[in-house]
Amino acid sequence: MPVTIPSALPARRILEGENVFVMTEGRAFHQDIRPLKIAIVNLMPTKMATETQLLRLLGNTPLQLEITLVRMESHDPRNTAAAHLDAFYLTFPEARTRRFDGLIVTGAPIETLPFEAVDYWPELCALLDWSRDHVFSTLHVCWGAQAGLYHRYGIEKFPLADKIFGVFPHRVLDPRNRLLSGFDAVFPAPHSRHTETRAADIEATPGLDLLAVSDEAGVYLAGSSDGREVYVTGHPEYEWDTLKREYDRDVDKGLSIEVPRHYYPGDDPSRQPQVTWRSHAYLLYANWLNYCVYQRTPYDLGEISAELPSPAAEE
């Protein structure tokens, strides 16, 4: 959360130069406070597990959040009970009359399919278009990041010779970006995917910033320059045993799968894996909620539009 200080305090300029988030008394006085409305478009087949993972990260904040779970009407989930969906989810047509401060679009285990071959692709494209003037900031995760980059910018995904599977070190490319506030220069994060988005394509796209990469796993974090779109190609929300369960499942099926890298101590799957990415995951979600959503979203959600002033113009 920001530190509120007098506008003329000499420390203000020093702290701002160090990328410490400070707020002047005038701005703090005029802030209106209300719960943030966050929608989660859950595309994962294991919806209940994904709900828990995301809500755990979102709950680690002093901000009050109102969560709305959303699913695709054009897709019939086979791994989640209809009673659960009916009780806790809105379809996109039911949700589209509302506005939200933030939106999360999850991954889905369909990355080897062409985007247009996904049964709910037209509906997801309609949702992404709708979000431009109904949501202030959208966080895309894994396949959701690939889908958003493809639909909005035409950035392709490419198949990999070998699955990127494990917990990989990543380098911060822009330490002054608010999403990366408090990050170490190198931080770990899990990946589990058969395709990649290439750094050169993001760097060549006006309005997009490449924020963190891995020498082994490639692109991890990118975002629009105005903070209203965030793209995470990995899975910071994973629990300590998510990669283990995926590995054990494929081994039990007799599938060819490599041991997840940098995950088990000594890369020995007989040993219990250790969580090394949890603090990064909490910090990433807290930064998104604070800097991309809470500090900039209009108090009146009816004022959200596709084009809003840049962060610099609002200071």
Task: Give a written overview of the molecule.
- The structure is a single chain.
- The chain is an alpha/beta fold and 315 residues long.
- The protein folds into two domains: 1-31, no CATH class; 34-242 and 276-306, Class I glutamine amidotransferase (GATase) domain (Rossmann fold, 3-Layer(aba) Sandwich).
- 30% of the residues lie in helices and 25% in strands.
- The protein has eleven helices and twelve strands.
- The strands form two sheets. The chain has a ten-stranded mixed beta sheet, with helices on both faces. Strands 1-2 form a two-stranded parallel ribbon.
- Strand 11 (218-224) and strand 12 (229-232) form a beta hairpin.
- The protein starts with a strand and ends with a helix.
- Residues 311-315 have low confidence and may be disordered.
Keywords:
315 residues; alpha/beta; Rossmann fold; 2 domains; ten-stranded mixed β-sheet; two-stranded parallel ribbon; 11 helices; 30% helix; globular; disordered C terminus; methionine biosynthesis; EC 2.3.1.31; Class_I_gatase-like; homoserine O-acetyltransferase activity; MetA_family
Helix content: 25-40%
SSE run: EHEHEHEHEHEHEHEEHEEEHHH
CATH fold annotation of the largest domain: Rossmann fold
Determine and state the CATH class of the largest domain: Alpha Beta
CATH architectural type of the largest domain: 3-Layer(aba) Sandwich
Tally of extended strands? 12
Mean pLDDT: 90
Function: Transfers an acetyl group from acetyl-CoA to L-homoserine, forming acetyl-L-homoserine.
GO cellular component, one term: cytoplasm
Site (Important for substrate specificity): 192
Binding site for substrate: 163, 192, 249
